[in-house]
Amino acid sequence: AKAEGRNAFRFFDAAMDAAVEERERLELDLRGALSRDEFMLHYQPVIDLETGQVIGREALLRWRHPVRGLVSPGEFIPLAEETRLIVEIGAWALRRACADALAFGDKARMAVNVSAVQFGQPGFAHTVLAALCASGLPAHRLELEITETVLMQDAESLIATLMVLRDLGVSIALDDFGTGYSSLSYLRRFPFDKIKIDRSFIADIANPETAAIVRAIVGLGASLGMRVTAEGVETEAQAAILRNEGCGEAQGYLFGRPAPLAPAVGCPDQAVEQ
Ligand code: C2E
Ligand code: CA
Ligand code: CA
Ligand code: CA
């Protein structure tokens, strides 16, 4: 039994080593990914629920790994944040998204996700301004999506950065609304332009209790003068309920999957079997 335990431990040990090695391998790959031009952005349309028109797009990062294939952000953004590589990757994404916003040839807004590590950088507002200037995209067409983790940082410099961006004319959206610990208190501290209702609420919207929460968020947005977008809309039934609750904008596989600007260059995110 003792030998068995020792073997199990060795096995566990080897598995740990493998995991550490795997992570180090990925970190090494990630460090070179930007210079090897392995990142790309997929764009997902944001729809006006009343007119059905595309009024915006969200830029979503993809990593074309030479061996692993297309790696989703959930798999590498945490590592990019830990290593602070996200600062450079995020600046690249901002420049790319601003340039592509014009290439789409319409007047839709471009939304870019910003990580807390990136937002906390002293030069962040300047990075945004540089991306706008280099592309020629009017500031009012750029929207930055931030989550609660951004707002948990040192409040004073944070509010200062938000104000600078605001003065430039850039919109700020509060992403994944309703999933954090204190979304409501953040709404009181800062006037966002938009609230994005997390897709977990939309997935469960057939449930009357969840629909009541969504209704309350839509009402909250209206009384605070903030636009409200529902994320992860996958069915016509969900869209109908959202329309009925007065939600203005929606995003989700029902309206369009994230896809590259030039479809010839890459493929849209694959349909996942339900
Ligand atoms: P997010 O900002 O909440 O983005 C929405 C996620 O939901 C995206 O996943 C999108 O592909 C997915 N999605 C859209 N419509 C539907 C739907 O109808 N059903 C379902 N099930 N999913 C849908 P993705 O692209 O894997 O991105 C995951 C997260 O990675 C994002 O969540 C965001 O937090 C982060 N991320 C993506 N791009 C960037 C970036 O450029 N910078 C930073 N800092 N984070 C990023
Ligand atoms: Ca987002
Ligand atoms: Ca979200
Ligand atoms: Ca999310």
Automatic annotation (TrEMBL):
<feature type="domain" description="EAL">
    <location>
        <begin position="23"/>
        <end position="272"/>
    </location>
</feature>
<protein>
    <recommendedName>
        <fullName>Signaling protein</fullName>
    </recommendedName>
</protein>
